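Box S2. Input/output pair 1.
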Amino acid sequence: MSRMKLEVLTETEIEAIHSRTLGVLEDPGVRVNHAPILKALAKVGAKVDDAAGRVRFPPELVEELRREAPPSARLTGLNGRVLDVGGENRYYSSLITDPFIIDYEKGPRRPVLEDIRRHAIVGESLDRVDAMMRMQYPAEDVPEPRSCLKTMEVFLCHCTKHAPIYPSSAENAREWIGAGEILAGSEGLRKTPLMSMAVAVTSPLTLHEANGDLLGMALEYNMPVISTVCPMAGATSPYTVAGTMVAANAEALMPVVIAQALKPGHPVFYAIGPSVADLRTGRDLYYKAEKALFKIMATQMGKFYHLPIAGEAGGTMTWRYDPQNGAEGTLYLLAAIAGGQNLMGGLGSCHNANGMSAEQIVIQCGLVDQAEYVARGVSLSDEELAVESIRGAGPGGDFFADDLTLRFMRESPFFDTPHFDLSGGYGDSVGVVARAHETVETLVANYKPTVPESIRQDLQAYFRELV
């Protein structure tokens, strides 16, 4: 069977990026503001300046350490489903909240607690969604310090799928871990990968103490690590696509090699999310067309390193449900899927990665269906080349009652999704946005709790004690 494959880099260019990345990791090296990690890196052969926090990696050490990293990561959820993330496997994660919610009637507004519940229900109910990620933003209608804890509680009380966590601090990570222990029960979180841990590298080339602490917790609790690497061309990385790719590649390898120095064999995702600075305003432009190039290059580099690959699913610069939204979302999803990314994060994202909505989650599930269909390619078996059917119909014939038609009509080899208007103008079909809104309202109205009541009560008691 044929399959679509998207590439930007030749094998020679992949080697060139890798070679230059090794050069960067050796000179100027990286900054690590974490004493225990510095000690561990010195022990394995890195050149460490403790006073400056500067670490220089000899190329042979980078090669040795990165080869310790496994090619896949095992994730699971309270639902018991195991996600083997790596190789040719693909999984999707939806958002729960963002700085702005795109209200179906009012447009952009700040999140409220009810958004958390609705978005968790939508993600929990859609088969296309394999995991859900709640970013650390407060609900406007719940005062701090209770707000972020309350959104975490509501999210976890409606989620049985895997949860990639994005802690804002070591203290917040401990809050997640405490909740994870409740979910894991007698098995314990260390033996049950219900959560994976995002660990940020600050561009350029810096691992701060707080993120070093998060990395240590991830290793302690056997949580797969998702690198959060977001260089901004012209501000925190060179003002070229190629230069930003080299910087991003070096930063993506930092958690990989550091984790292997601390705990060989621990799974770490290759993940980058570069953007571009608007030099007229200083603003970060996250979902411009360069995103497709970065995504394809990232999958090529991740495969070169034999690592599981994570990144955004797709998104758009606009908050509106308009042609730009669909065009950008389709482009980035196709780049990720046909490129070979394994974990697609952030279904529902829009508004320059600052906004999301329940409707956008559903719409992007439709875009995923479309991109998966196109990337899958075409089966060219003798049966499906259908020469006998063509001969049987002959010139001027038809194929309505052909054996091939009768065989495939209930299992169509052609594209379909419940999330798009595929009526072709026949009948009274509603548009994609109205259809998505109807889907959201139906899922929320018909939702039946999936998290066992005993666990919900334990979570609620746990979060009450934290305040």
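Box S3. Input/output pair 2.
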Amino acid sequence: MIRIDPHIHSVYSGDARGTPSEILRRASAIGLDAVAVADHNTMKGSIIAFRESRGMEVTVVPAMELSTSAGHIVALGIQEEIQRGLTPAETLDAIHDQDGAAIIPHPFVRYRQGLFVNERNIRVDGIETLNSRYIVGYSNWRARKFARKRGIPEIGASDAHFVEAVGSSFTLVDSEGEADDILHGILKGKTEPAGSRTPLPLIVREVINKKFLGRMRNYV
């Protein structure tokens, strides 16, 4: 079984502070086999992570988190950036044209652009049913219930925006360790979410840091 955290943000998301190198070192230190740096509407962090992973025992699955016209979709296994602002159907077609997997993150959370708030009758390849950034468990429970009712593979992910949160939740995939094998395992539904929520003190600290940094930028 491969342990992958398939939804991590780096500094290239604009709202996160870990560099790709720091993410890789953290992943290696806690025993993850693979990661996907899925920055908002860019593959820059993913590309850098792939380059810097050479010689390491951590596989990088290329990814990005796309802002569609109705909510967010994580594109796993793509090789080229996909345009933001497309409809969900157009975005899914673009992901599948690259033989990638379309994962719906935080699907029912309106303030985080959860896609299923607005659109549910679409063909997706996985749903985050264990997202570490929830303070309470209701949203994960709702996503899990939806995924099981429709027979959609379940995904666990940290959605980390700071390095210490990387790997707090992850996905066990019954596959070999190469990126293509992991992607194939996800598409075949050979997945199991694992881990726990990011500790609340870390989330509170990050909120405080973001507010402080935001105020500092206003004075620069």
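Caption for Box S3: The chain has six helices and ten strands. The beta strands are 2-8, 34-37, 59-60, 63-67, 72-76, 101-104, 126-131, 154-157, 169-173, 191-195.
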